[in-house]
Amino acid sequence: MDRGLIERARNGDREAFTALAEGSVARLYAIAVLIVRDTNRAEDAVQEALIAAWRDLRALRDPGSWEAWSYRLTVRACYRAIRRDKPRILELRVIPTREAGDASDYTQEIVDREQLERGIRLIGVDQRAVLVLHFYLGLPLTEVADVLGIRVGTAKSRLHRGLAAMRQHLTSAVTDDPPKTERTA
Question: Which residue of 4, 47, 73, 141 shows the fewest CB atoms closer than 10 Å?
Answer without folding.
Answer: 4
